[in-house]
Amino acid sequence: MLDKSYKHVTCENCLSRKNSLFGSFCNEETEDLNDHKTCSYYKKNQPLFIEGNTPRGVFCINEGRVKIFARGEEGKEQIIHISNSGEIVGFRAMFSGEPYKVAAATLEESNICFISKEDFLNLVDSNPTLRNGIMRELSKELADRATFITNMAQKSVRERLAFTLLMLDDIYKDDMINLSREDLANFVGTATETLIRLLKDFKEEDLVQTHARKIEILDRDGLLKVAGA
Question: Do 144 and 31 fall within a single domain?
């Protein structure tokens, strides 16, 4: 659990910066970045931005995880991405000039830095490395999103759950997957009751083990087979 006073981390001392779009900044650029950001503690389920709002800047995750999601006509969430430490959230909207098409909220207690739209765009204009990194990130996201949509559209719910668990295992890395059953169902695109039933099946097949809400992957190859990968 994060110390709630843990707010004022500097960019120089940020362990997540090396994995971010700012990872290649020199000392002078890092100092300038530090002068133009604020850092705050976020509670679990606290929103960063909501659909329809005008973008004010970007959010860089120092510690924690954030879900990116859209809401259907009946208000049901569809999670489309989970951002990890080091990721920058909201920068895509900086370039479209349109309101947010999605929303973002913390999945756990998090420490997140904010850079205003003006300061971020100035950084992009003055730093070719950052600009090229953003272009690569946008291209990768387009390819990843196409794969995600194809998998979700053409696979059964059982296959989608296996595919999603493998994705989440990569996101959580050395930690066990820690999502509420509702959030996991919203990621898979199914009802919570169906998700719980399928998780029970996966446990009986020794593919996963659950520890309260946490999920441990026991057999990646087995999940790959179920996912049709």
Answer: yes
**Residues 30 and 57 reside in one and the same domain:** yes
Give the CATH number, domain containing residue 43: 2.60.120.10
Q: Are strands 214-217 and 208-211 parallel, antiparallel or unpaired?
A: antiparallel
Per DSSP, the three-state class of 212 is coil
pLDDT tens-digit profile of 153-175?
788 999 999 999 999 999 998 89
Three-state secondary structure string covering 33-101: HHHCEEEEEECCCCEEECCCCCCCEEEEEEECCEEEEEECCCCCEEEEEEECCCCEECCHHHHHCCCCC
Cβ-contact 87, 43 below 8 angstroms: no
Closest CA to 167 of 80, 44, 66: 80
Q: Residue 6 falls within a domain, yes or no?
A: no
Q: Is residue 9 a part of any domain in this protein?
A: no
The pLDDT tens digits of the residues spanning 23-71 come to 888 899 899 999 999 999 999 999 999 999 999 999 999 999 999 999 8
Domain containing 161 equals 155-227
The domain total for the chain is 2
Chain CA centroid to CA 228, Å: 24
> Distance between CA atoms of 62 and 39, rounded to whole angstroms?
9
Q: Given 117, 135, 150, which residue is the final one in a domain? A: 150
